[in-house]
Amino acid sequence: MKYKIIYIHQRPYPYNQNFYELDSDYYFYFGHGALFDMHRDELFRNTYDFEICRGEVGVKKLKTKIVNGTKCLIFPAYHFYRIGTISFSLLKYLLTLAKKEKIIIHYTASPHTYEFYIITFLLGSKIPIFVTHQGGPNPYYKLQKKFRLGTFISYNIEKHISKYVFKYFSGAYYEIEYFKKITSSSKVYDKPTWGVDLENYKPIDKLEARKLLNLPENKKIILLFGKLNKYRGILNAIKVRDTLKKEFDVDILNVGSDETCPDYEIAKKNGVILRGIVPYERMKYYFSAGDVYLYLTEGEENFYYAGTGIAPLESLACNTPIVANTLHNFPFIDFTKAGVYAKTIDEAVEGIKYIFRNPERLSNTRSIIEQYFDWHVITRNLFNFYNDAIKIFY
Question: CA separation (Å) from 164 to 51, 93, 131, 210?
């Protein structure tokens, strides 16, 4: 008999915003679960069936679609003030399924939702439950800032239900420390659980990439990708560039943003090269075209709980070094082989100067990604965890 993994993704961004075409494949096949599913090997697929589920506010009835051979389900959901989004039809589906089949639930993108609390309370003693944190502060952090009754209740709920969670995952060092505070450290996995597709992100000769993309061949290029908002750090990047211009002919290149982004106009007025949304298969050329990837994320919560960021890792896979203020998140990884840890604008300026002047010293940053962030390695580790859970529960 095959076991089944139910991957539940609650969207981390506001419930009333969409970033994909309605009813497209990506609308269904979305998030960490989809990436995880893409990289399962044959043994994994022969051992486990896989479903990707989520609740969606505004959906009137269950929607299903098969994408990449995987069943995807979207359930009607409701958003409650100070409670968040909950799908009662999803809860009913899980309760019914747990009676008929041998299942594992893997919940993402946050363990700090009431939907997750309810699922864990109702099913945690009966089936294995895994949870992945992908950003956002925990209740304990919030309580240190300001006492709120709702936050206090959430914190105590999380301490109580931790006994029902089989394994916690996060790419943020301070969230991992929080998990160790509320539960046994043996339940907390502190290695990467989000990877890079090494087949798609391959190094391209820098000059070849720049010619293909019609980028300046002789300038230094700082990369900063994704939607331009305060968390992306574009304002910091502009300050860094302006300082570097005293010694270097340098530009900032951005892809992944458009006119709807809060800081798009600021970037445009400040001469940032804006290439908009580009096809996935061309991203390796953009990453390879840069001299350095800069990520000075803004805001304390982002610094503590957003992880390393995915784009910096993809940059490393293309042998473009990074300067970032998020490299504290995996202290066991020697990121000095891949770039510079910089928490301030001045430190970032000095870090980029070092990379500009010594490119040969950071010419094989891909090796760190191959060692720690290869999706095939990550999925095999998860496969082993699921097998451990099956032995205990079934």
Answer: 22, 20, 11, 52
